[in-house]
Structure formats: C-alpha cells, structure tokens
Write a structure and sequence with these properties.
This protein has 453 residues and is α+β, with helices and mostly antiparallel strands. The protein has 16 helices and 23 strands. GO terms for molecular function: DNA binding; endonuclease activity.
Length: 453
C-alpha cells in the first residue's frame, strides 16, 4: 500500500475487479442489414459508437453472443493491431467481433475505465504485447493488468470528476452533430431539391399564396403555425421566401430555379492545390505552420494538428474547406487556422466568401468523388483540371448571402463547441494521470472542474 496525496492506494489485478470475456476467434459472414458487430476499428475512447459497425444476421449474432451479452457500462478493449484501445458500452445491442474483449466491472465502471486509460496501465500494455508484425495483447496480459485502487469513496469521486469532463465533451459533440444535420437539411432544401421554389409553383398552380407556401417550406411550419411566429421573424421569413422564384427551367444539370445557372467549381471557387514541402522541414514539435499532407489527420470537422512545417509551400486560409484529392478522394474537413497543405489536399473557398456554402457543396459532392477512387495508376486521385471542371449550379447571390447569414451562426457555434472539446480533452488528459498517480488531491481536481464546466 502507498500513500498518495494523503490517500492510501494499493493495486488489484484486473481479474480481481472485473470479469474478462474474450470474443470468438473467427471471421463471420457480414450482412447488409442485421445486428451490429463491434470490431477493433469501432473502438475509440469514450462511449462505444455503433453507427458505423458492420452488420451480421440473426444466426451469426446468436453464435457470437453465447459467451458475452453486453450491458451498459461494460468496457470493450482491443487486442490485435491497434491494441489496448477502450470504449465504454452505452447501447448494448451488439455482439463482439474477433480481436476484441469485454471487461465486465465489479467496481465503479467509470473509475475502472479511467484507470485503464491511465499512463500507468498503458505502460503495462505496451510492455505486455507480443508479436513482430502484428502486435497482440493476450487475454492473460489483460487479466494481469495492475489497477490502482483508492477505496470506493475516492474512486467514485475520481470517476465523477473525469466523467463530467467526458460527458460535457460528448454533449458538445451531439449538439454539433445536430447543428450540422440541420445545416445540411437547409442546404439540400435550398440548393439541391429547390423545395421553396417547388412550393411556390404548387401553390400558384392551386390558386394559393406562393410566398406563404415558400415560407412554410423554409421554416418547416404549417400555414396555421406561421400565424404564431413573432412579427419580426415573420417579416424576415417573408423576405427570405421572396428570394426564391416560382419557376424551374431546364439546364444540363436538370431543372433549376429560374435565374440560376450552371457553372463549374473552377469558376465558382478559389481552388488551391496542395504542394508537399521537403521532408526535412516536417516536425512534431509545433515549430512552424500546421501541415496536412492528406486526410490522415481529418476528424469530424476540423483536422488535428499533429505535424508542423517550417518551409510551407501552399496554404489554406482559416475557414477554407479542405478536400482530399488522393485516396480516398472526397473526404472533407475545414481549416480551423491558416495551415500548410500537401499534395493530398486541395483548399477551396467560394468566391463570395461563403464558408458554409463551400463546405456543404463539397459534402454534397462526396458521392461524385467516389468515382475517382478507382482511377489513377496506384490509387484513386483527382487532378486540378478534373476538379475545376466539375459542373455545379450557380445560385442567385442573394440566396447565397442569406444562407451564409443563417448557417454562419450554426458554424460558429460548432467551432466554439469544438474548441471547448479540445480544452476539455487537454484538461482530462492532465487530470487523469495526476489523479490516478495521487499527484493531485481529489478536492483540488473537483475545484478545477467547477471552474471549467
């Protein structure tokens, strides 16, 4: 037993504080639909996300569920390749795929999850893996992991401190996801499906008020609900509806609103193709400008600054949309700051300066870009000429301006939330090892949390 920060601590093997259950060691047959199967690629820090899992049939699900039936707050750990990664079970409707293992806690599950992600346990994992080509963490090594113990009350408090940070970060991510979905829906309604225009046409045909119909299409409200909107909002909604025509015309891209046109990415956007600086100018010491060679550092919306460059060649400006132009072509992120881009990326900005229109236009073109993933001599790619020649619509400038005003507020809130997530992550990564090692007292960490969250 050790005295740490005035609190007694000792160690228990993981097998003493949890049941460790291995997955079946076989590759299943996947299905188009069915039950989620969690593989190593699905396991990341935080709550287990089942949204991108492969699916298996009822029969396969039953076979892979015989050993282990998931419960909320169980822990999943990876064993092969990307070993030692953990996720906390939230939705228990899945089965374990090979090379993953379930940890069923007998103590506070949040505390155990935190302990498993501490440097003290991570170092044990690194020391325990075997294999030269593909590193493997054995079931015995997992069972033998030494978990620092402080006693129930202290462990509960540590779990509460760090879980509050993670939960706040998760809430911000959910808010951001909702905001992006709302923005994408508005973009699709205005610039893809032309719903306000179609609503005006239908109303005009039926002898109804076209402007009122467009207001319903834009707001998502019924005609009766419009009467309950405050006067100022109603005036603005009416002005927005007036921006859309009541006629569609033929074009090479199909029917488009009257007065709009067909153009190309090269005409509508400022396009900067990346150029890779000399390799000796790269570093991970934060010297110079953030550098992105390709999509490797892409995250949900903003890339993570991992590599820097002291002799940048090509720049993306803050707010530019970053587009992967080498396999996989079409992945999109936004530049949070001025950064250097390598040959795997292009930076784009609509000539109107509308960041939101740029971002959501390129998000909409992701399916188009998938065609390029089978081209190129070594891997899929798209060159500058092909990129600039892609046909797109040319909307009315007033529609773009209103879209920028409306969605710009969403995007700013997303950026603010992402910055807070980054700060919370840094705080968690600072407090976690200090709490588990006893370097910082629990009451001090609790005070820090109250100031931040």
């Amino acid at each position: 037993m050790q005295e740490l920060g005035g609190v007694s601590a000792n160690f228990s093997k993981l097998s003493e504080v949890a049941d460790v259950i291995d997955s079946l060691h076989k590759t299943p047959k996947y299905s188009e639909t069915g039950f989620p199967m969690v593989r190593c690629t699905d396991v990341k820090y935080g709550k287990l996300d089942l949204s991108d899992t492969l699916k298996v049939s009822d029969e396969v699900f039953a076979e892979f569920s015989r050993r282990y039936k998931p419960k909320k707050n169980d822990i999943i750990i990876t064993r092969v390749g990307s070993y030692g990664l953990t996720a906390l079970v939230d939705d228990s409707n899945f089965c374990l795929g090979q090379n993953t293992t379930a940890i069923v806690p007998k103590i506070n599950p949040r505390y155990l999850y935190i302990a498993l992600n501490s440097p003290q346990v991570k170092n044990q994992i690194e020391f325990s893996v075997v294999g030269s080509t593909q590193k493997t963490l054995s079931l015995k090594a997992i069972n033998d992991l030494e978990i620092r113990r402080f006693g129930g009350d202290v462990e509960d408090r540590i779990a509460e401190i760090l879980s509050a940070i993670d939960d706040k970060g998760q809430l911000n991510r959910q808010i951001n996801q909702t905001l992006e979905e709302m923005a994408q829906a508005i973009f699709k309604s205005w610039f893809v499906d032309f719903e306000p225009v179609k609503a005006r046409i239908e109303a005009k045909t039926n002898g109804q008020d076209p402007e009122r119909a467009a207001m319903c299409a834009i707001s998502g409200k019924t005609d009766a609900e419009l009467d309950h909107i405050c006067p100022d909002q109603l005036v603005h909604l009416r002005a927005t509806a007036a921006l859309f025509p009541d006629e569609l015309t033929d074009s090479e891209l199909g029917l488009i609103p009257k007065g709009w046109g067909v153009s190309t990415i090269g005409v509508e956007f400022i396009v900067t193709m990346g150029q890779s600086p000399p390799g000796h100018t790269y570093n991970k010491n934060q010297e110079g400008t953030p550098f992105f060679q390709g999509r490797r550092d892409f995250k949900w919306r903003y890339p993570v600054n991992r590599v820097f460059c002291t002799a940048p060649k090509r720049f993306a400006q803050k707010g530019d949309t970053l587009l992967s132009v080498r396999a996989p072509v079409g992945d999109v992120n936004k530049a949070a700051t001025i950064c250097c881009i390598g040959r795997g990326l292009a930076a784009l900005r609509h000539k109107s300066g509308c960041e939101a229109y740029t971002y959501y236009t390129l998000k909409k073109l992701e399916q188009y870009f998938n065609n390029f993933d089978t081209e190129g001599t070594v891997f899929g790619s798209i060159n500058q000429k092909a990129l600039k020649n892609i046909k797109i619509i040319h909307p009315n400038a007033k529609n773009l301006k209103e879209f920028s005003r409306l969605i710009g507020g969403f995007d700013q809130q997303i950026l603010n939330n992402e910055n807070q997530i980054s700060s919370l992550t840094q705080l968690r990564d600072t407090l976690l090892p200090e709490l588990i090692s006893g370097e910082i007292a629990v009451n001090v960490a609790e005070s820090v949390n109250k100031e931040v969250i």
